[in-house]
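Appendix B. Raw example, untouched.
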Amino acid sequence: MLLVLLLACSDKANESAIDVPTLVFLQPEAGASVTGPDVAFTVVVEDFTLVEPSKHNEGVAEGFIRVSADGTAVLDTGSTQFDLTLAAGGHTIAVELFYTDGDALEPAVSSSLSLTVL
């Protein structure tokens, strides 16, 4: 009987656990030298549904990625793949998850990498 109660409590604990979204770059790799000016990027998002930035669905864990190049927001996208046109030289690219209403997740879910465009 005690085993059944422990298993039931264990299942309830797992159900109440909240999955924390993650966001990481898949390509290019951090520190890479890439041929430009057009550079393709791929990120991986887990536990968060991407939608087009214009869609609004309050209270749901879905939204978009805001892409910044060298500290300036340059793109809002509902896709894990995007291209940026970058001048030759060093750049820092950052991505952050936002809810569809434009609010950032708290705590922030973001990733960044530095690369050199040849």
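End of appendix B.
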